[in-house]
Amino acid sequence: xxxxxxxxxxxxxxxxxxxxxxxxxxxxxxxxxxxxxxxxxxxxxxxxxxxxxxxxxxxxxxxxxxxxxxxxxxxxxxxxxxxxxxxxxxxxxxxxxxxxxxxxxxxxxxxxxxxxxxxxxxxxxxxxxxxxxxxxxxxxxxxxxxxxxxxxxxxxxxxxxxxxxxxxxxxxxxxxxxxxxxxxxxxxxxxxxxxxxxxxxxxxxxxxxxxxxxxxxxxxxxxxxxxxxxxxxxxxxxxxxxxxxxxxxxxxxxxxxxxxxxxxxxxxxxxxxxxxxxxxxxxxxxxxxxxxxxxxxxxxxxxxxxxxxxxxxxxxxxxxxxxxxxxxxxxxxxxxxxx
Length: 339
Ligand code: DAH
Prior knowledge:
Layout (H helix, E strand, L loop, with lengths): L1 H13 L5 H12 L4 H8 L5 H34 L20 H14 L4 E2 L5 E3 H4 L19 E3 L4 E3 L4 H10 L4 E10 L11 E11 L4 H16 L5 E8 L2 E10 L16 E10 L1 H6 L8 E8 H9 L6 H4 L2 H4 L7
Parallel strand pairs: 1-5
Antiparallel strand pairs: 2-4, 3-4, 5-6, 6-10, 7-8, 8-9, 9-10
Helix pairs in contact: 1-4, 2-4, 5-10
The site of 3,4-dihydroxyphenylalanine has 11 residues, from strand 9 and strand 10.
């Protein structure tokens, strides 16, 4: 036993580190409940009475040496952590690679930039919404099947609290707070209970647009979105409007652009039609204006909503939505931050 204690003593004396984890390992090895020193005290019971004094003292000395060692090394570790340049050569040139913006941020910023040139501001709203802002004020009657179009994640039932299914909820918040003229864009994250695939995700991003003033017409809507499409996808881009239905707009439409991949000739992206859908839009339903205390006799407005992922897919020819969320550095590095 004496030999063992002497061996431990040497080991403890020789030990040195400036690494906090190694120091903790050392402490655990010697002092923890199952460590070497408690084990020695355990064996001490079997030591012959004649040797007890000497061996007892040896173990105590070892324990003290280990404790002192820990105190000394600890102060060295702390001193090292206090030096900001520790382990780094501050004279080296700054050659670290600069990160790039996420493609969805690039596209969001570009959309905001395009609309800000024609007077649109940016407004935001909460991701956790109530039924009123996400549905009722937007003219979705209770029990109306249109609510099923959007597979909602509910947080609480009655009164319903939910994750917003679209950024149209922000229009309501803006109109409740501000009287016209209103010209605003609301970018943000939205949530729907959908299975994840190359074409759908349960979390995605939208930009909502809203313009309310006296004498706003469908012609204004078309011209605004035509301007957007050409700025975003190139001056040669054509647009077409197809009649559609949304509870919060009347009349409603969906806008297609000429396929920017094949130039309208037909390819697998546009399913050989030459056109791809990019957004929903329409004239704000008078019921929506009234729900937000805006006089629908005096004011009219248009609104539109688009998915940022979809615009980014067309712009960058990305064919799988999941790539946006996996953060594979090889994918992200391909995007240059100009916005
Ligand atoms: N909120 C719709 C959606 O999520 C998109 C949309 C369509 C927004 C038409 C609008 C609009 O403002 O006028 O599918």
